[in-house]
Amino acid sequence: MQRVHYSEDHLAFANLVRDFAAKEVAPHIVYWEHEGRIPREVFARAGALGLLGFATAPEYGGLGTDDYRYNQILIEEFMDADCGGVGLSFAVHNDICLPYLADLTNDEQKQRWLPGFVSGRLIAAIGMTEPGAGSDVAGIRTTAVDHGDHFLVNGAKTFITNGQNADLVITAVRTSPDRHHGLSLLVMERGLAGFERGRNLDKLGLHCQDTSELVFSDVRVPKANLLGEAGAGFSYLMRNLAQERMQIAVGSLGRARAALRWTIDYVRERTAFGKPIGALQNTRFALADVATEVSVTEAFVDRCVVELNAGRLTPADAAKAKLWATEMEFRCLDSCQQLFGGYGYMREYPIARSAIDARVTRVYGGTSEIMREIIGRDLRLESNRAADG
Predict the structure, then answer these.
(1) What beta strand segments (E) does 175-310 contain?
(2) Along the 389 residues of the chain, how does pLDDT read in single tens digits?
(3) pTM of the entire predicted model
(4) Among 355, 332, 361, 331, CA closest to 343
(5) How far lies 203's CA from each of 134, 147, 207, 360, in Å?
(6) Which of 54, 214, 293, 358 supports an S-S bond with 157, CB 3.0-4.6 Å?
(7) How far apart, in whole angstroms, are the C-alpha atoms of residue 37 and residue 86?
(8) Burial class (CB in 10 A: 0-12, 13-18, 19+), 154
(9) How far apart are CA 242 and CA 304, in angstroms?
(10) Is the distance from CB of 230 to CB of 184 less than 8 angstroms?
(11) What b/e string do you get for 229-255 counting C-beta neighbours within 10 Å, with b at 16 or more?
(12) CA distances, 109 to each of 59, 101, 174, 233, 293 (Å)
């Protein structure tokens, strides 16, 4: 089925991204996985091609477009090239961090941060998750005490994507005890005294993408690094969660689609009992299910992207996209990996690396259980009497 929401400009951009992934990323991915980090110059090369910060105004080096289809294409092409870890690092930079830096910054902050963000000279991360606060954003305990011209920050964050490479960390801190109106956002810049990075975490998958612990010990953060209004951090975070969850849904769809393609190629070539295993009914049935799930998911995710662009995507629909796409990805990758037999367990094969990488998608950005809770609440299942009472 033809995808109708991409224009000729989008398809031209897809060719640019595909070429970049094939030449600049894919040949090095195994080495970067061994090293546990993407070299900083990869961001700079992507920035030089216009692959970073699409929504940034032209005066700061961006394209001035918030059309999420460009973000979608970037993620899809990296997944198709078996470069999902790099795609995630770029997506955190583009999809998750940019809305805060584009929408909440004043003129001085824009001048200070956005040109470097677009060029790839400044790499961004977001610091929400803490050892005791994952999906419960309101439970954040990192404190920022007002000291006149600066905040004094103490606390820790964990599971921070781009944590080792990041120059700018958009950090959720508690500026008052109020659970929902006591959070603020501060930009922690590389080099601030007392801002330390812990170890690069040893993850199950996504090995080339740095994920870190961050520690703040009496860090003096200038008031000039406050994003938006003090105390409004919770509402800012909630406002951007729909796009974050769409980024995960798009990535899961892209990874499942790539796995289907790899598996079709493999079963056409691999023989058993004197014929290609693609000729076996079990193989046809298994891949028929995968193809159907991918196509159905694609239709819903593409529709959600259209709604996101129009400003109509609801938190519940974003949760549905994230829940369905990540669970679908897990089922489909398992089916595809099974058809590779023993080779599907070897990390030299993309299907094995993708299956490992996919495990976390049902956890980060809000677990599947949290997504079900959001969707369930939107159904308003309480009785009218209970709701009125």
Answers:
(1) 183-189, 195-200, 211-222, 226-227, 271-272, 275-276
(2) 788 899 999 999 999 999 999 999 999 999 999 999 999 999 999 999 999 998 899 999 998 998 999 999 999 999 999 999 999 999 999 999 999 999 999 999 999 999 999 999 999 999 999 987 766 777 899 999 999 999 999 999 999 999 999 999 999 999 999 888 899 999 999 999 999 999 999 999 999 999 999 999 999 999 999 999 999 999 999 889 899 999 999 999 999 999 999 999 999 999 888 899 999 999 999 999 999 999 999 999 999 999 999 999 999 999 999 999 999 999 999 999 999 999 999 999 999 999 999 999 999 999 999 999 999 999 999 866 655 55
(3) 0.93
(4) 355
(5) 17, 38, 7, 10
(6) 214
(7) 9
(8) middle
(9) 10
(10) yes
(11) ebebbbebbeebbbbbbbbbbbbbbbb
(12) 14, 8, 21, 17, 44
**Alpha carbons 199 and 202: distance in angstroms, whole number:** 9
Determine the Cα–Cα distance for residues 154 and 101; give it in Å rounded to an integer. 23
**Structural contact between residues 196 and 204, judged by C-beta atoms closer than 8 angstroms:** no
**Residue 213 known to be catalytic:** no
Residue 386 to residue 75: CA distance in whole angstroms: 44
